[in-house]
Design goal:
The complex is a heterodimer of chains A (about 300) and B (about 50). Chain A has about 300 residues and is mainly alpha-helical. Helix content of chain A is about 80%, strand content about 0%. The chains are: A mainly alpha (about 300), B mainly alpha (about 50). Chains A and B meet through α2, α12, α13 and α14 of A and α1 of B.
Chain lengths: ~300, ~50
């Protein structure tokens, strides 16, 4: 190594603090990416609509609704086909949209509104059904139709809003009573920005420490970016090992379809970001290694 | 013995930098993975309508 090059190298003592900062930078980048993706997953109305209105999800909801109507039909002796046809796919999609707006509205304002309800008019269909009308007195027709309508409405609502009522009424209400949700949400929304600012600060400090030989800063920052990409891939692998989809599938097939769609979108986004980080980090490191070799 | 090119081990940098978090995640997965899986299963069963 020439005297001139040796003079330009940062003092050996700077390598240890720079390496520690690079480890912190890797952690900050990893936490920022996971935080940003999670925040997007929780708060994006467009993403939730995309998931809720996916073909497979609506198909499974329609299958569940048809099965529930068949069960109600057995009790009230009506043909389930025209009643099932009265619950249109468009009306179920509309209820899904309302549910997403209700949920994301809660996330945005922290105010818990009444969950959306469904109402269908089955009187015309039911009075034409001989099996249903048989044995019913004139005076009880209206109330029995209302009973069937209420049960069908509830079956449709439960197929779309898959969280238990007790949890919505009791659990969420209790949380909103005790916690200032808008304030907490405001802080959570700021976290990815703060993480990004911390990452920039750490990268700046590394560059400052290595300013006499900026290639080494390229190596540390590039290494941190690539390391973050590796960590994101490891995290995705560990989350997959938790077999969440199978657990959800045991509880509800319709919710499993929604989770599958959501997890696929989030995984693709995360893999895309991780790959981008690894490419940028790899290029930085390649540049650093190439220029450092010149001095060797 | 072949002489190693200078900087050829620098590609290990990302792995070394990711090692502390990876080790913590690995430890958590081995130590708490099964419990976490059971907890999630129970929570889902309680929260979702049949």
């Amino acid at each position: 190594m020439s005297k001139k090059t040796k003079k330009n190298l940062p003092a050996k003592g700077w390598n240890v603090p720079a390496a520690i900062l690079a480890v912190l930078l890797t952690m900050a980048l990893w936490a920022t990416q996971l935080g940003a993706v999670s925040l997007w997953a929780v708060s994006s109305q467009r993403l939730h609509e995309r998931v809720a209105l996916s073909q497979e999800s609506i198909d499974r909801q329609m299958t569940r609704i048809a099965a529930e109507i068949s069960a109600i039909g057995e009790t009230h002796h009506f043909d389930p086909s025209p009643v099932t046809a009265a619950v249109t796919r468009e009306s179920v999609e509309a209820l899904n949209r309302q549910t997403v707006a209700w949920w994301t509205g809660f996330g945005a304002t922290g105010e818990l509104q009444e969950p959306p309800v469904y109402h269908t008019d089955l009187k015309d269909v039911l009075v034409k059904d001989q099996g249903f009308m048989q044995g019913l007195e004139e005076t009880t027709v209206n109330s029995t139709v209302e009973q069937v309508e209420a049960r069908v409405d509830e079956a449709v609502r439960k197929s779309v809003v898959m969280v238990r009522d007790e949890l919505i009424q009791g659990g969420l209400q209790r949380v909103t009573d005790r916690v200032d949700i808008p304030k907490v949400l405001e802080i959570i929304r700021k976290l990815p920005g703060l993480g990004a600012a911390a990452s920039l600060l750490l990268a700046g400090l590394i560059a400052l420490m290595m300013s006499r030989k900026i290639q080494l800063a390229g190596l540390y920052i590039g290494g941190a970016l690539s390391g973050c990409g590796l960590l994101v891939l490891l995290t995705l692998g560990l989350l997959k090992a938790l077999r969440l989809e199978a657990s959800i599938g045991e509880a509800s097939a319709a919710l499993q379809a929604q989770y599958h769609h959501l997890a696929r979108i989030l995984t693709m986004e995360s893999i895309g970001l991780a790959t981008l980080m690894m490419i940028v980090g790899g290029l930085l490191m390649a540049w650093a290694v190439k220029t450092l070799r010149k001095y060797a | 013995m072949m002489k190693r090119k200078p900087g050829s081990l620098m590609w290990l940098t990302p792995i070394l930098l990711a090692l502390p978090v990876a080790a913590a995640l690995g430890f958590a997965a081995i130590r708490f993975g099964a419990e976490l899986q059971n907890l999630i299963q129970v929570a889902i069963k309680l929260a979702v309508t049949k």
